[in-house]
């Protein structure tokens, strides 16, 4: 796949993800559910059906496709990953956390609803992610469903995304700014772990060999690191209109970024090196990995 | 088991649950976790190692024991249920929700730490619950692990506990107080669903027949309803010192309870009827169900 065709592919998969999320977040209760309260469902839908790029489910889906696996089950599992991402945005935006009023130019969930409903909508999306992973409709083999749920939990919780957000909060109150290693660890948890799992998860779904699975985890890890630096570069360069959220906020709050430590020039080089590291992790798959290769380059280039 | 021996049994199982939670919430990262940030781990431990009665894990463990199944795996699964309960207390206590400063006479998590850390500690406990359920260390059969994770998710999320909390918030802002049916539905979601799953979960763990599993679900459903009415009676009768939290709060905020609709006398009768309904659901198990029978009567009598 040429890099020019990549945005269309991303948009196409994103539309399938949106449609699947739409069906999952339906008003009809599932077996074992008492009822689906209207306001909470509306808040969960607001948070999940948000027009995002759907990079995480895209990586999951394209990683599974690398092994010839596609279809409704993969889409469901990919949506579970996206629900975890969406829950994290809702909770991170809360007044007690980053206190953001806007996301992608729209009011954040606690502004569109209220704070209590936003907390519950995040909780509901996180819980529903594991519902979807554990459900036989996602994959016929329960061993694989368990591996997916376990991998998602490890990437998202105390030792992954939630832990990374805590380190980020800690850094705001720390006496000294974080050094390069501490920032790299924070980012590998806060944004890296879920991106890594997104790529690895597709291989788990496809029951790929351990070495293939590890290659995709390595790809996801490098892509995740590149993604975060690209994001920090965007933040440093960006303007409010283009981003739809307040900028230079992280710098203002003394949150360490690698851009702050390395400067823009060196940060761009590191980002591009990491994107190439991601590409190199896929060498074993040859041309079949073209889409994932384009994804790594796209992730880096969005901040060029 | 005579009712006099029940408190000792509850305390004994509670101590095993406490010890298992202590081991699970260890500083050592698990495979797939990057690191366990100290402050978040401390907040999760504060919320989980709280000296509660551990009624939910007790029901899970005694339900599995009814089928001759016990050991380390059951304890882990029971702790996953307790983690979900503990996360819900942390989030319900937040300023945007019930705004409670004390729980069991101790500062709530957001008072002992801060609001952002409390939100993340709840998120971390919820996520870790599914980690534990999906982990092969909990049960050798992945089909059963998936059934447990799915049942836990359905009981906890949009269509269960989180949804019930939303209905409770909605009721505060409603023009008219809730009627009997609406309160019963709210409570069947907010507290009932997880208690029902606690009893049913032990049967799932033990791979019991569908009819045995359904009997335990019926038991848990009736016990859960009795529990909530007993709690509302305690709230109406209680005093601040005995409860360790502010009382008559629910009444003051116009939250509907069945005590408010029926009066104390009729509420006590309904509570006792529900406890007997729980007991009757266990008829098929004969004397083997003595502990669970005592649990139903204990649940009701704590508010006598």
Task: Provide an overview of this structure.
2 copies of one chain form a homodimer. By secondary structure, chain A is mostly helical. The longest helix of chain A has 28 residues, at 210-237. The first copy, chain A, has a single domain (6-301), classed as Farnesyl Diphosphate Synthase. Chain A is globular and about 55 Å long. Chain A has a two-stranded antiparallel sheet. Chain A is built from 15 helices and 2 strands. The interface between A and B is large, with 66 and 66 residues.
Strand-helix topology:
The structure is a homodimer of 304-residue chains.
Chain A: H1 6-24, H2 38-48, H3 55-65, H4 72-93, E1 102-103, E2 106-107, H5 109-112, H6 115-134, H7 142-156, H8 161-172, H9 180-205, H10 210-237, H11 240-243, H12 249-252, H13 258-262, H14 264-280, H15 290-301
Antiparallel strand pairs in A: 1-2
């Amino acid at each position: 796949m040429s890099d020019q065709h990549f945005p269309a592919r991303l948009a196409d998969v994103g539309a399938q993800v949106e449609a699947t999320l739409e069906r999952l977040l339906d008003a009809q209760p599932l077996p074992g559910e008492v009822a689906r309260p209207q306001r909470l469902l509306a808040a969960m839908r607001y948070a999940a059906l948000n027009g995002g790029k759907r990079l995480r489910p895209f990586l999951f889906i394209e990683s599974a496709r690398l092994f010839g696996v596609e279809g409704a089950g993969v889409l469901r599992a990919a949506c579970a990953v996206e629900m975890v991402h969406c829950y994290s945005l809702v909770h991170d935006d809360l007044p007690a956390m980053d206190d953001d009023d806007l996301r992608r130019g729209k009011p954040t969930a606690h502004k569109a609803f209220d704070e209590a409903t936003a907390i519950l909508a995040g909780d509901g999306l996180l819980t529903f992610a594991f519902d979807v992973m554990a459900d036989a409709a996602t994959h016929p083999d329960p061993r694989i469903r368990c591996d997916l749920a376990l991998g998602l939990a490890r990437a998202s919780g105390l030792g992954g995304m939630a832990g990374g957000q805590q380190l980020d909060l800690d850094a705001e109150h720390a006496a000294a700014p974080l050094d390069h290693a501490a920032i790299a660890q924070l980012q590998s948890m806060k944004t890296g772990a879920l991106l890594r799992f997104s790529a690895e998860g597709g291989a788990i779904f496809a029951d790929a060999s351990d070495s293939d699975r590890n290659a995709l985890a390595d790809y996801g890890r490098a892509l995740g690191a590149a993604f975060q630096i690209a994001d920090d570069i965007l933040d440093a360069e960006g303007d409010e209109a283009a981003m739809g959220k307040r900028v230079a906020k992280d710098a203002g709050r003394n949150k360490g970024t690698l851009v702050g430590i390395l400067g823009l020039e060196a940060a761009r080089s590191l980002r591009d090196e990491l994107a190439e590291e991601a590409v190199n992790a896929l060498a074993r798959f040859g041309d079949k990995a073209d889409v994932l290769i384009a994804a790594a380059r796209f992730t880096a280039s969005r901040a060029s």
